[in-house]
Design brief:
By secondary structure, the chain is mainly alpha-helical. Helices cover 35% and strands 7% of the residues.
Length: 141
């Protein structure tokens, strides 16, 4: 049972449509109301995307970040969630001119890192697998 239909091209949008559906397609898709609705929906989508990608200022460190990345910034940099963030209406200017300047500021404010973890390979008591140190591939030390 071969149901291959000849497709015709819509004169307005150049879509390929079955001939018996062309009249309904023109009625539904290409009326002035439908065109206005589609244009309005596209404009709202563009507006939402622009707002979503807007540059805002972090309320804690005044660093400029995209609105879509603000939650991740707060979690990764400050270790907090969105519940403590006040509304950010206007983007603020970043008070640091470079990453180096920002890092120096926070290092000065927070003090040096005091890690009690040993830094050497053998001080961490790691178990190495593989051919390193003459142990062979499947041996551990």
């Amino acid at each position: 049972m071969d149901l291959s239909y000849e497709l015709v091209e819509c004169p307005k949008c150049k879509d390929l449509i079955r001939p018996f559906r062309l009249k309904m397609h023109l009625k539904k898709v290409h009326t002035p109301e439908a065109e206005a609705k589609r244009i309005k929906a596209a404009a709202e989508l563009r507006k939402a995307e622009i707002e979503f990608n807007a540059i805002v200022s972090c309320s804690i460190c005044k660093c400029s970040v995209k609105r879509k990345n603000l939650t991740r910034h707060l979690k990764n940099v400050h270790g907090c969630d969105m519940s403590i963030v006040v509304s950010v209406k206007e983007p603020a200017k970043n008070k640091f001119n470079s990453v180096r300047e920002r890092k120096a500021f926070w290092k000065k404010m927070l003090g040096p890192d005091t890690d009690d973890e040993p830094q050497g390979l053998f001080e961490k008591k790691l178990v190495l697998n593989g051919g390193a140190y003459g142990l062979g591939r499947s041996r551990k030390h």
